[in-house]
Amino acid sequence: MDYRDDDIEFANRLLTRREELDDEEVTAWLKEKDHVELLEEIAAIRQKLTEGESQINDEDEYRRLEENIYDQKSRRMTLRWSIAASIILLVGLFVGRTINDVRDMHEEQLLTKSVMQPGTSKAILMMANGEKVVLDQEQKLDIQLNERVRVASSGQGIVYEGNGKGEVKEEYNKLVTPTGGEYFLTLSDGTRVFLNAASELKYPVEFVGGKRVVDLDGEAYFEVRKDSLRPFIVRVNGAEVTVLGTSFNVNTYGDDGLIYTTLVNGSVRILSEKNGQEEVLTPGMQGVMNIQTGQLTVREVDVESYVTWREGRFVFRTMTLDLIMRQLQRWYDFEVFYQNPELKEYEFRGVIKRDMDLDKVLSVIKATTNVDFEVKGKVITIIKR
To answer: Which residues form the Protein FecR C-terminal domain (predicted)?
Structure first.
């Protein structure tokens, strides 16, 4: 590695006269991977010279290091090793401890940076034969599933295409999005599905019979291709949502023990399997089912709050901090702890873009509440200000 002279000098000051340096200056300098490697290289020099000779004194060590310096062919390398020698003679064993501290600091900065990143388009496709395919924005896919159906990459995700030839086979695929992922697919009937983070959708590669049935765990937005002869049914935890052709959102995360079905346009029927209750929704309405009792209630809502996630926005309408953090956890992938339980009930209202780094999102929430966030690696602790 070809280090600059001023970086070598800064490393010297960092190891020997740390108190003279400004904290922000040090933090900024250590963000560069090359700078951390420079400090490690200096430690490696010392270890090489002293390994196996614990009784070596400073004079001998300096002499041997000097010999190494004279072996170098360039003046630049001579300068570098000379400064390294002075560092070694001045700091002794302190070098090793400082290098470890700096390495830990660098690793912590990388962890913090990783947790701050928003989710991306990614998923795992599980096929009928047990094969798993990792999907992301760069993945190109073109697989002939059987003589009738193939699955291939589209502009946004994957699409199932049939040719109408040969024998119809009842085969199922499953699309799984991880925490910090979302994905889009077009089913064989032309229905479009936007799958949110930490969700699963099981579906046939080709719909057979008089119904089109899929199973959802998590959250998805559906744009159902109209087919008056074959209703489209979404099976969730203890309920069925039946449509002919419409756009709607189903949220089965159950963060608050409820399942939400929000209708954008068209018409849907919700059936509670636990008590047989049935409700029909019209546009702008939402069906809410209690997971434990199966009780269904219908209410009018601001639809935008429940569907804009697919357009890249979080819309929080006077939502508790607990429910907000659960949504953010699925998208940014972190753990959260509260200084005390009452903080979970604090409320926040606002609109946040899903492509923002998490530190900016937390800053927005912090600015309008009396809570603060301590971020360390992938753990966020919420405290009262």
So the answer is: 313-382
